[in-house]
C-alpha cells in the first residue's frame, strides 16, 4: 500500500478507536456494572481488531505513520 493511502486509512482507524474509547467512557457513567462489563468486552475486542489487524500492518510497512511510542518496545 502506498504511503498516501496508508495514511488516509490509518487516520480513519485511529479516529474509530478514539470514538469507541469515548463510547466506553460514556457507558461507564450510564450503564449498570454488569452491562458495562459486557460493553467493555465488546468495545475492547473491536479496538483490538482495529489495532492489530488494521493499524499494525500499516505501521509495519510505514513506521513513520505510527504515533510516537507505538512502535517502541
Please tell me the overall pLDDT.
Answer: 95
Describe the sheet with the most strands.
none
Annotation field: number of helices:
2
**SSE order in H/E notation?**
HH
Proportion of residues in helical segments: over 70%
Broad structural category:
mainly alpha
Rg for CA atoms: 14 Å
Distance between the termini: 25 Å
Strand content: under 5%
Number of strand segments: 0
What report would you give on this structure?
There is one protein chain. With 73 residues, the protein is mainly α. It has one domain (3-58). The protein is 78% helix and 0% strand. The chain is built from two helices and no strands. The chain has helices at residues 3-30, 33-61. Helix 1 runs antiparallel to helix 2. It is elongated and about 45 Å long.
Task: List the defining traits of the structure above.
mainly alpha, 73 residues
Per-chain topology:
Blueprint: H1 3-30, H2 33-61
What is the compact description of this entry?
Helices cover 78% and strands 0% of the residues. With 73 residues, the protein is mainly α.
Amino acid at each position: 500500500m502506498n504511503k498516501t493511502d496508508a495514511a488516509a486509512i490509518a487516520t480513519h482507524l485511529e479516529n474509530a478507536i478514539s470514538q469507541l474509547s469515548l463510547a466506553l467512557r460514556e457507558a461507564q457513567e450510564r450503564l449498570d456494572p454488569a452491562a458495562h462489563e459486557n460493553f467493555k468486552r465488546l468495545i475492547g475486542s473491536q479496538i483490538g481488531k482495529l489495532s492489530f489487524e488494521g493499524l499494525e500492518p500499516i505501521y509495519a510497512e510505514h513506521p513513520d505513520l505510527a504515533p510516537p511510542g507505538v512502535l517502541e518496545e
